């Protein structure tokens, strides 16, 4: 879309991932003048840049029942648009959860359509170079432009706005950080790869190959999932590394190189051992590494693992969390902790509001949560919901409704959460 040159707006959203998209669209639909900044040419964050190929956290956590969407508004709308665009009738069951397979290119297109329809000013390839406070709000510096706004939403995933403003950023010890994922796609794969019996066989074959020295041990956690596109599969490999630093460019480069090497070795193994991989195309690598955790904001409330497990309700609940605690602190696969009951848990608005700077909101991977709680609420379906809530609250702040309790009450009414 053609960008407006207006430099005074109600709200700037920094980061065009799952949370940032929904924050910008929700705020604009409420009548706010919104600018969305994204440093890459794509919208969708990890869903388009890192090939994260399933929308997790969209559905209620009771798989004994038919799938039911957990969050109204944009999460529901995005699910329906993805189903329509890819020809899916709904989600698939994966163990004890429902997930919706998604196609990264389609997701980018859907996100851009939503943003354009809402009248958001979209700035792609726009790297935020600084944020400062002013008498009336904030000033956001780009390379060749400065934008003044009343409120901000940080959807950057790394809490970059906190760094610019000198606010508190929280990070767990480096050795406990969720491991990154390298995800690539393969086309022209036979339908046999989708069978459960093959996935079980593959897991055993990989164990034997590692024991025999034919593959490195890092390959043991690799998973294979079908894309909505016929013949396409996504392969995910969790990566180890004691010196992993998600915000350091050299660390990301070294880790990405290791991921590509593992991908090439695994592809050769698949072609050699299974006939239905013999015609597969070369691996398609993602534009970015799949980062699961870096920095978080200090909010008015830090969401805890126990609150999610116990299903604690809050007076200012504005989003529902349904994904289990999915810890990936090593490269040997996920360790799941499930909620005490098969029902959604809750996220309060205070976990999306700065404890230190009025008018600053955040959502997605950088919200205010413990390391363990983040392992649940970082998934894309939940990011849609927290982004939507943060965008609505930031729009209200810009429009003069500054009390968090009033914002939460209005959001609950708007979304029908009462």
> How big is the Rg?
21 Å
Low-confidence stretches: 1-6
CATH level 3 topology of the largest domain: FAD/NAD(P)-binding domain
Helix content: 25-40%
Number of contiguous helices: 11
Q: Compute the separation of the termini in Å.
A: 37 Å
Q: What is the 3D shape?
A: globular
Please write the string of helix (H) and strand (E) elements: EHEHEHEEHEEEEHEEHEEHEHEEEEEHHH
Strand content: 15-25%
CATH structural architecture of the largest domain? 3-Layer(bba) Sandwich
The structural domain count equals: 2
CATH superfamily of the largest domain: FAD/NAD(P)-binding domain
Number of strands: 19
The secondary-structure class comes to: alpha+beta
CATH class of the largest domain: Alpha Beta
Q: Let me know the largest β-sheet.
A: 7 strands, mixed
| Mean pLDDT across residues | 95
Keywords: 4Fe-4S, Iron, Iron-sulfur, Metal-binding, Oxidoreductase
Pfam families: FAD_oxidored
Protein name: FAD-dependent oxidoreductase
GO molecular function, one term: 4 iron, 4 sulfur cluster binding
Question: Could you name the key traits of this structure?
Answer:
single chain; 418 residues; alpha+beta; 2 domains; three-stranded antiparallel β-sheet; 19 strands; disordered N terminus; iron; metal ion binding; metal-binding; FAD-dependent oxidoreductase
Can you walk me through this structure?
The protein has 418 residues and is of the alpha+beta class. 32% of the residues lie in helices and 20% in strands. It contains 11 helices and 19 strands. A hairpin with a 6-residue loop joins strand 12 and strand 13. The longest helix is centred in the middle third of the chain and has 25 residues, at 249-273. It starts with 7 loop residues before the first strand and ends with a helix.
């Amino acid at each position: 879309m053609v960008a407006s040159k207006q430099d005074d707006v109600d709200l700037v959203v920094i980061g065009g991932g799952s949370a940032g998209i929904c924050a910008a669209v929700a705020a604009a639909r409420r009548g706010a003048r919104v600018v969305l900044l994204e440093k890459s040419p794509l919208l969708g964050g990890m869903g388009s840049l890192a090939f994260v190929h399933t929308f997790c956290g969209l559905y209620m956590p009771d798989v004994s029942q038919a799938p039911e969407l957990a969050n109204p508004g944009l999460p529901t709308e995005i699910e329906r648009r993805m189903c329509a665009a890819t020809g899916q009738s709904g989600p698939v069951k994966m163990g004890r959860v429902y997930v919706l397979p998604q196609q990264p290119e389609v997701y980018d297109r859907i996100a851009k359509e939503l943003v354009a329809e809402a009248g958001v000013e979209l700035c792609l390839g726009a790297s935020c170079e600084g944020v400062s406070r002013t008498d009336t709000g904030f000033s956001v510096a780009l390379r060749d432009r400065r934008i003044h706004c009343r409120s901000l939403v940080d959807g950057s995933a790394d809490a970059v706005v906190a760094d610019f403003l000198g606010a508190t950023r929280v990070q767990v010890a480096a050795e406990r950080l969720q491991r990154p994922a390298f995800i690539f796609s393969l086309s022209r794969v036979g339908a046999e790869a989708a069978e459960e019996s093959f996935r079980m066989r593959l897991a055993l074959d990989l164990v034997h190959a590692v024991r025999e020295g034919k593959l490195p041990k890092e390959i043991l956690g690799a998973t294979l999932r079908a894309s909505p596109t016929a013949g396409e599969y996504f392969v995910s490999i969790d990566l180890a590394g004691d010196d992993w630093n998600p915000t350091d460019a050299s660390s990301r480069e070294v880790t990405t190189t290791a991921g590509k090497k593992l991908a090439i070795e695994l592809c050769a193994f698949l072609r050699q051992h299974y006939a239905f991989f013999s015609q597969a195309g070369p691996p398609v690598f993602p534009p970015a590494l799949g980062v699961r955790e870096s920095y978080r904001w200090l909010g008015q409330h830090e969401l805890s693992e126990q609150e999610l497990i116990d299903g604690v309700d809050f007076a200012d609940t504005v989003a529902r969390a349904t994904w289990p605690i999915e810890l990936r602190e090593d490269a040997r696969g996920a360790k799941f902790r499930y909620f005490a009951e098969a029902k959604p848990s809750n996220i309060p608005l205070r976990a999306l509001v700065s404890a230190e700077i009025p008018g600053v909101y955040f959502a997605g991977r950088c919200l205010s949560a413990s390391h363990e709680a983040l392992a649940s609420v970082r998934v894309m379906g939940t990011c849609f919901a927290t982004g939507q809530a943060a965008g609505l609250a930031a729009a209200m702040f810009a429009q003069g409704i500054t009390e968090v309790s009033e914002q939460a009450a209005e959001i609950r009414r708007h979304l029908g959460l009462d």
